[in-house]
Specification:
single chain, about 300 residues, mainly beta, Neuraminidase, 4-stranded antiparallel sheet, 23 strands, WD40, 6-blade_b-propeller_TolB-like
Length: about 300
């Protein structure tokens, strides 16, 4: 699971790109040799991207420029699981204390929305329902003896009772609502008894009707549905990869309208590249982060 404490290795850079999903043309928006930033979100007006780095949240124009810190009102250091409300007025973040916070941009005053489920339970946010009423998150439970389970939960965006949608020993992650609210997309190892074979799935918001979407030898994480509901972009790791580690050769892939799978970009990245939805509002562009190491 993500942490805010990761830094760049000697000679490594963080590079923020936008790629056109029809032409594959890439635009470098920002690069840094000092701040390891991650997980771009687009603002609903399409004018800015949000990324996290060093436990903070930053905003940057899509045309490029400097990272500008977004005040979080004293929230503990955040990780790369952050999403915007559909109206763009609130950012929801996962913090390193294991909780989810809502921060309205207008006031900058944070409010914890996750419940206290004990010190051995952590919340990792991935999605907001299209009407803004519910959050989809991964609950990580560290059991006695060290066993770890990760399951899909939802909860009211204003705080309230959690609903657990999966209850199994398989690693589950990346839970995100479809734009029409009919599905929650996620990745899981439920299709294989061998660790290191995550594939993409979706289910109804009540946890029923689970469908498998990808079936290949690579390890597929973080399915993100385009705002028009027509395409799914995700990060594909090499065969046998355990979890979603940093500093790997990965491929950003897209499932097209007709179900065909196509490579969009190959890069050195992984953790932080595209953990949360990074689609532009026009469904024509995707943002991602690469972490090349150069002499």
């Amino acid at each position: 699971m993500p942490s805010s404490t990761r830094g760049l290795a000697p000679g490594q850079r963080a590079e923020l790109y936008i790629i056109d999903v029809d032409t594959d043309a890439q635009t470098l928006v920002h690069e840094s040799s000092t701040v390891l930033f991650e997980a771009p979100n687009w603002t609903p007006d399409g004018k800015h991207l949000l990324v996290n780095g060093d436990g903070l949240l930053y905003r940057i124009p899509v045309e490029g420029g400097d990272l500008v810190e977004v005040p979080l009102g004293g929230v503990p250091a955040i990780n790369n699981d952050h999403v915007l409300s559909p109206d763009g007025e609130t950012v929801y973040v996962s913090a390193d204390d294991g909780h989810i916070y809502a921060i309205p941009f207008r006031t900058g005053q944070p409010r914890r929305v996750s419940n206290d489920r004990g010190s051995n339970f952590r919340h990792y946010l991935h999605g907001v329902s299209p009407d803004g009423s519910r959050l989809a998150y991964i609950g990580m439970l560290v059991e006695e003896g060290g066993a770890v389970t990760t399951n899909v939960f939802t909860m009211p965006a204003t705080g309230g009772k959690d609903i657990q949608l999966t209850d199994d020993p398989f690693p589950n992650d990346g839970s995100e609502y479809s734009p029409d609210g009919r599905w929650i997309y996620f990745n899981s190892e439920r299709a294989s008894a061998t660790p290191g074979h995550a594939q993409l799935f979706r289910m109804a918001p009540d946890g029923t009707g689970i469908e498998q979407l990808s079936r290949d030898r690579r390890v597929n994480w973080f399915p993100h549905v385009s705002p028009d509901g027509e395409r799914v972009v995700y990060v594909s790791f090499p065969t046998g990869t355990i979890g979603h580690p940093a500093d790997h050769d990965v491929i950003i892939r897209i499932i097209e309208r007709d179900g065909a799978v196509r490579d969009l970009a190959s890069l050195f990245g992984g953790q932080g590249t595209m953990n949360v939805s990074s689609w532009a509002p026009d469904s024509k562009r995707v943002a991602f982060v690469a972490y090349p190491v150069r002499p």
